[in-house]
Design brief:
The complex is a heterodimer of chains A (194) and B (241).
Chain A lengths: L2 H9 L4 E2 H11 L8 H13 L3 E3 L10 E4 L1 H11 L12 H11 L5 H25 L5 H29 L13 H12 L1
Antiparallel strand pairs in A: 1-3, 2-3
Chain B lengths: L2 E12 L6 E12 L3 E5 L6 H8 L7 E6 L2 E2 L5 H11 E4 L11 H11 L4 H14 L15 H13 L5 E5 L7 H16 L3 E6 L2 H4 L4 E6 L2 E5 L6 H4 L7
Parallel strand pairs in B: 3-8, 3-9, 6-7, 7-8
Antiparallel strand pairs in B: 1-2, 1-4, 4-5, 9-10
Helix pairs in contact in B: 3-4, 3-5, 4-5, 5-6
The chains are: A mainly alpha (194), B alpha/beta (241).
């Protein structure tokens, strides 16, 4: 899930105002991703800078700016929506992106966000450990499935812990200026090798 | 169920002036009989301090600790030592078994130190060892036991007699995952039998054996999981930041 692409997708439906985009974005993601107005406008400004959206000249004159998607924006959106060309790219981890996005949203305490996720993940782990504790010791299939879930959750919890430790060490996670996708990371590595 | 351990606004600081360290700040924790609570947090978050104060091994700078409803600060030094011997069991990462004694003798030791006659103490030790599936190891010496067995003997020693509060600090730290799991199974079963248990750990997998997980950070209790999460609550969307 990417805010940038979500906004492009919403503008693909027709020209819209910033506040309207925020409202539609939040409704569309089941309020799982609360979005700050500043975040919407910041994304819109970047999209405009990149030529992916533009001001809608047909809109009524008013205090708010109306945006429309450009042809380049549609292409960007379609290439994102379409099947990935490079099948070697690992799937994006939503939590990683969420934490990265949260770092950019003013007023969000990332340590609290990390804790909210840790509580939830440990809660899920308690559930699967409970399954394991109650399972018949001979039920190998069930035990293996519970173990798989527990180890998967453990990996995510460990990542949260390392993220929190880095934050507390004062590492600037806002650098570089945009959250790195695995694709961008790969491009960067290629660039370095050259 | 009765509240076995209650800590109210407990703080502990060390040193003074520029060297003053607040290891624990206004911590509240309450554990009922039959409940296993995990205290989770990174190194230096205050979780071990919390445990040593809960176990009356250390006194808080401020706040109160009630064990079985009795305020520990009202007790004399001797009464407190008796409370420790009779009501509280400790399990540490290092098993701390005495090498010259058999498993049964190690388990019987706290009872004998408390004045229980040897025969009675030995019988209670056998019961505790049976409970932990170690009946056939009673006559073995610590160097004849595996790591997992040694920690189970340590748990038997912690629950022998009529102990109602079990405190464990990283109890599986020295064990592999299979033995760690069997130790946590035992701790869980022991608490289900009516003992109030507190396990301190930095490991989420270990913590997940508890009925409730309490999170600590910088000396404070900052959050906790709801007791016994059900599937429904887990399928709801992630919390808003």
């Amino acid at each position: 899930m990417s805010v940038r692409h979500a906004l492009l997708a919403l503008l693909g439906e027709g020209p819209k105002y910033g506040l309207q985009l925020r409202q539609e974005f939040e409704a569309g993601t089941g309020d799982v991703w609360p979005l700050n107005v500043g975040q919407v406008y910041m994304t819109l400004q970047r999209l405009e800078r990149d030529g992916l959206v533009a001001a809608d000249e047909d809109a009524d004159e008013g205090p708010q700016k109306c945006y429309r998607i450009t042809e380049a924006g549609r292409e960007e959106l379609m290439s994102w929506l379409g099947p990935p060309l490079d099948t070697g790219v690992p799937p994006r981890d939503e939590l990683v992106i969420k934490v990265l996005v949260a770092l950019r949203v003013p007023g969000v305490d990332v340590v609290d966000l990390v804790q909210a996720h840790r509580r939830r993940l440990v809660g899920m782990m308690q559930y699967f450990t409970g399954v394991k504790a109650e399972a018949d010791e001979r039920d190998g299939g069930l035990l293996l499935v519970a173990d798989a879930e527990i180890y998967r959750l453990d990996a995510v919890i460990r990542w949260l812990e390392s993220a929190e430790a880095r934050l507390r060490q004062g590492v600037d996670l806002r650098f570089p200026s945009a959250p790195l996708s695995p694709v961008a990371l790969r491009r960067r590595q290629r660039g370095m090798r050259r | 169920m009765t509240t076995m351990l209650e800590m109210r606004q407990v703080s502990r600081s060390y040193g003074e002036g520029a060297a003053l360290v607040h290891a624990l700040i206004d911590a509240d924790l309450s554990v009922r009989a039959g409940e296993l609570v995990a205290v989770m947090g990174p190194s230096g978050s205050g979780k071990s301090t919390l445990l040593t104060i809960a176990g009356t091994l250390e006194e808080p700078t401020s706040g109160s600790v009630l064990i079985g409803g009795r305020d520990v600060s009202d007790l004399s030094r001797n009464d407190r030592a008796r409370l420790r011997r009779r009501s509280i069991g400790y399990v540490f990462q290092a098993f701390n078994l005495l090498a010259g004694l058999t498993a049964a003798e190690n388990v019987a030791l706290p009872l004998e130190l408390d004045g229980t006659r040897s025969g009675v103490a030995q019988r209670a030790a056998r019961v505790a060892l049976d409970q932990l599936g170690l009946g056939d190891r009673a006559g073995h010496y610590p160097d004849q036991l595996s790591g997992g067995e040694s920690q189970r003997v340590a748990i038997a020693r912690a629950i022998v007699g009529d102990r109602r509060l079990l405190l464990a600090d990283e109890p599986t730290g020295a064990l592999d995952s299979t033995n760690g799991e069997s130790v946590m199974r035992m701790l869980r079963a022991t608490s289900k039998g009516g003992v109030a248990g507190v396990v301190v750990t930095h490991d989420a997998q270990l913590a997940s054996w508890a009925d409730r997980v309490v999170f600590m950070r910088d000396g404070r209790v900052v959050d906790q999981t709801p007791p016994r999460p059900d599937v429904e609550s887990l399928l709801e969307p992630s919390p808003r930041p």
